[in-house]
Amino acid sequence: MSAEGEVCITCGDRALPLRVVAPGAEPGLARCADAAGREEEVEVSLLAPVAVGERLLVHAGAAIARVEEEQT
Questions:
Q1: What is the reported pTM?
Q2: Phi-psi group of 37: left, alpha or beta (phi > 0 → left; psi -120 to 50 → alpha; rest → beta)
Q3: Alpha-carbon distance 70 to 30, whole Å?
Q4: What's the pLDDT score for residue 3?
Q5: Are 32 and 25 in contact (CB under 8 A)?
Q6: Residue 52: CA atoms inside 13 Å, Cβ hemisphere, count?
Q7: What is the DSSP letter of 3?
Q8: Which residues of the chain have pLDDT under 50?
């Protein structure tokens, strides 16, 4: 990340929180959606197993961390 913590200095991508909405087409993949409902298939091998409904931090098409749900 840059000094400002906004983007990756190697590729410029941002890590985004996505929610798992379905299993992927192959093992190690999951169908995920952002808050606007846009979906994409994400590599989840680093965090497997993942469950539908889980929130993941995704960078460059790969899930890199689980996002904790905020307690209200």
A1: 0.79
A2: left
A3: 23
A4: 44
A5: no
A6: 4
A7: T
A8: 1-3
Quote the CA–CA distance of 55 and 72 in Å, as a whole number. Answer: 17
Tokens of 35: 């808050």
Q: What is the per-residue DSSP string for 4-58?
A: TSSS-TTT-PPPEEEEEEEE-SSTTEEEEE-TT--EEEEE-TTT-S--TT-EEEE
Q: Which tokens hold the place of 51?
A: 């469950």
| Residues 20, 39: Cα–Cα separation, whole Å | 9
Pairing label, strands 39-43, 55-59: unpaired
The predicted pLDDT at position 2 comes to 39
Q: Is the separation of the CB atoms in 30 and 42 below 8 Å? A: yes
- Is residue 29 a contact partner of residue 40, using CB atoms and an 8 Å limit? no
pLDDT of residue 71: 64
